[in-house]
Amino acid sequence: MDCANDIQKVPDCMGQINRTVSSGYGRGGGGGPSPACCRVVNGLDDICWMLLFPEYYPALPAALKALCSRSSSSVPAGSSG
């Protein structure tokens, strides 16, 4: 698995993650990562999190995944294909 490549496939995903952290995980009104970035977030394993964000591990993965799950649950019913 190429962690950096996976996260770079989504434009600005790394920036979205960094902004989410700096805004207090959405508490500062900044929201969270885009749905596409959330798919990457949910697909990264622990080794990738440690390599990409060592200063925020282990809190970051759980916080971002929780934020992404809240964001996806707010999508209106019937909006998927």
Number of domains: 1
- Helix fraction bin: 55-70%
Q: Determine the number of helices (DSSP H or I, runs of at least 4 residues).
A: 5
Main sheet properties: none
Which stretches are poorly predicted, pLDDT < 50 over at least 5 residues?
A: 75-81
Strand content: under 5%
Organism: Linum tenue
Protein name: Prolamin-like domain-containing protein
Domain Prolamin-like: 2-55
Keywords: Signal
Structural features, described:
The protein is an all-alpha fold and 81 residues long. It has one domain (3-71). Helices cover 58% and strands 0% of the residues. It contains five helices and no strands. Helix 3 crosses helix 5 (59-73). InterPro entries: Prolamin-like. Residues 2-55 form the Prolamin-like domain. One of its GO terms (cellular component) is extracellular region.
Helix-strand layout with pairing:
Layout: H1 3-8, H2 13-22, H3 35-43, H4 46-52, H5 59-73
Helix pairs in contact: 3-5
Domain Prolamin-like: 2-55
Protein name: Prolamin-like domain-containing protein
Keywords: Signal
In short:
Helix content is 58%, strand content 0%.
For the structure shown, list the relevant keywords:
81 residues, single chain, globular, mainly alpha
